[in-house]
C-alpha cells in the first residue's frame, strides 16, 4: 500500500488514506537567464546555479463511513496545520522533501463508498537525506559528497585563537575563537553553541561541499572539525 509520512504522521496507518498511484516527481528548474545580442549567434547565458521549487501532486481516496466527517476534519487539520514539514514517500524512505500543502483540500464522492481528493505539495528544489550523521575529522582529510548537487553543510570548528579552514578550494579565516564556532551554510550564519552571533569571527563565503571528493584541512589551534553534510539530490 503506497503511503507517505508528513509532519510526523503516516497517510495510511494514521488516516487510512489510499494513494491512487505513485506521485510523479518533477526535476527542479535551473535558473538560467538568457540575453539576445544582435549580430551574435545563440544567446548569452547567465547561470545562477540555483533552482526553482517543485510541485508534487498526490491523488488520494478515503473510504466513506459513519465517522467520515470527523476524519476529514482531522486530515485537513493535519495537512494544513503541519506547515512546512518533512515529506517522505514509502518507496524512497531514506530521502525526504521539505514541503508544505498549498491547496484547499476538497473531498469529492467518486464511488459509492469512496471520496477522492488531491494534495498539492510545494517543495524545496531538492531531496534531502533523512539521516545526516555528523562526520568528525581530528586531522586533515577528505569528505565525499554522495549527492547529485553541492550541499550546504553545518560545520563546527573546535579550537581557540585564529585559524584557517579550507574545504576544497574554499578558504575561510576564523579569528578570536574562544572554544568553538558553528558555520551554518544552510542559513548563512555563524554562531556559538549558545546561539550568540559570531559572524564577525569568519571571513569568506559560506562553504559548500561540491560533488565528489573534497579535501578538508586547517591551519591553527584546531582540535577537530564536525560536519553535518546535508546531502541533497536533484
TrEMBL record:
InterPro entries: Dit_BPSPP_N (IPR006520), Siphovirus-type_tail_N (IPR008841). Residues 33-123 form the Siphovirus-type tail component RIFT-related domain. It comes from the Bacteria. This is Distal tail protein Dit. It comes from Clostridium frigoriphilum.
Amino acid at each position: 500500500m503506497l503511503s507517505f509520512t508528513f509532519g510526523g504522521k503516516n497517510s495510511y496507518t494514521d488516516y487510512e488514506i489510499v494513494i491512487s498511484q505513485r506521485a510523479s516527481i518533477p526535476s527542479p528548474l535551473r535558473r538560467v537567464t538568457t540575453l539576445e545580442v544582435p549580430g551574435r549567434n545563440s544567446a548569452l547565458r547567465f547561470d545562477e546555479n540555483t533552482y526553482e521549487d517543485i510541485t508534487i501532486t498526490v491523488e488520494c481516496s478515503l473510504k466513506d463511513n459513519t465517522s467520515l466527517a470527523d476524519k476529514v476534519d482531522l486530515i485537513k487539520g493535519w495537512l494544513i496545520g503541519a506547515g512546512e514539514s518533512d515529506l517522505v514517500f514509502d518507496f524512497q524512505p531514506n530521502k525526504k522533501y521539505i514541503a508544505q500543502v498549498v491547496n484547499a483540500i476538497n473531498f469529492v464522492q467518486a464511488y459509492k463508498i469512496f471520496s477522492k481528493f488531491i494534495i498539492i505539495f510545494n517543495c524545496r528544489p531538492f531531496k534531502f537525506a533523512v539521516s545526516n550523521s555528523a562526520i568528525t575529522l581530528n586531522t586533515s582529510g577528505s569528505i565525499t559528497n554522495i549527492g547529485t548537487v553541492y550541499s550546504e553543510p553545518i560545520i563546527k570548528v573546535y579550537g581557540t585563537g585564529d585559524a584557517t579552514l579550507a574545504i576544497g578550494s574554499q578558504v575561510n579565516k576564523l579569528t578570536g575563537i574562544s572554544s568553538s564556532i558553528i558555520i551554518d551554510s544552510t542559513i548563512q550564519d555563524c554562531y556559538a553553541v549558545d546561539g550568540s552571533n559570531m559572524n564577525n569571527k569568519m571571513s569568506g563565503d559560506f562553504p559548500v561541499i561540491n560533488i565528489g571528493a573534497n579535501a578538508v584541512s586547517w591551519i591553527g589551534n584546531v582540535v577537530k572539525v564536525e560536519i553535518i553534510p546535508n546531502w541533497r539530490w536533484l
